[in-house]
Amino acid sequence: MSQQTAVRGPGVSGHGTLAAYARLAKLDIYDYYLGLAVVWALLAPAARWQPQTFGLLALTLVAQVVVVAAMVGFDDVTGYRDGSDAANYGSDAARRRLARKPLVAGTLTEAQALRFSWTAAAAGSALWAAVVAAAPHRPMWAVVLAAACVAASVQYSWGLKISYRGFQELFLIGLGIGWTLVPYALLTGGTTGFVLVQAVLFGSGPMLFGLYSNTNDAEGDRAAGRITVATLVSARAHRLFVAAMTVAQIALIAGATATGFAPWWFAMVMLPLVAMRLAHLLIGFRGDILRARRIAIHAHRVTVGLLVVAALVSGATP
């Protein structure tokens, strides 16, 4: 019996539904797209309300969604083939929502997922080219960074399989940073120290909640040959690594305020985030990894709100 036949439930047809493709694209996970709200808030007040600004941000949003759809589609195919998704989701379907893995759940075939992923990869690349072509500014570093983000996303678990080669954590933070800096630079022609601080704070959010996923998935990832910090070190060492990354984010907030890269009041605005970070760290240390992950996801979304407030206030402050 093939692996695909083994996981397909009775009565499941071979025809994918729109809902199954939406689950394959992980449309319910929108955290990387929230960076565009931060970009909008960081713009000069006069530029925020220009129709061209909204048009470029909307086109960028579509490009990001389509590229992520390709990335997670290929990731699901790879996880299905090597058995890591069945190992990581099958034993805890109630909490991990097995339906979000349509190949393992049997609601899509591997061929359907591959066609979807390749189509999304081509469309996403074309959309990002359109974003660059439509932008009022095209600094070379931003164009190169945009291309690197697209290429790395498509090869996250496919091609070079960078998430299997020990670069997953770096990718998770890097994509968030890139997808904040690139649209800002395309709209303004450059960047600033405060924008860079906000980009790193935004990008570190998906990395931090990804670390809890890696903690939970360490055994299945290790069996599949996926290299993450969680698969290379002991559980205690990985907890310390998560703590170090959490403290690093808090230190960035304090350091940016102390050195003048951020306004003097920035650290105070970010205090709710600091509280949430310490809360999920404590819960994770006590062993409830999936609850800590949920709080970390909410903390990232709170981060976006706080960064938007800080950007708007900073722009209004003489």
Automatic annotation (TrEMBL):
InterPro entries: UbiA_prenyltransferase, UBIAD1. It comes from the Bacteria. It is found in: Membrane. Keywords: Membrane, Transferase, Transmembrane, Transmembrane helix. The chain crosses the membrane at residues 29-47, 53-74, 116-134, 140-158, 170-187, 193-212, 240-258, 264-283, 295-316. It is a multi-pass membrane protein. This is UbiA family prenyltransferase. It comes from Actinomadura chokoriensis.
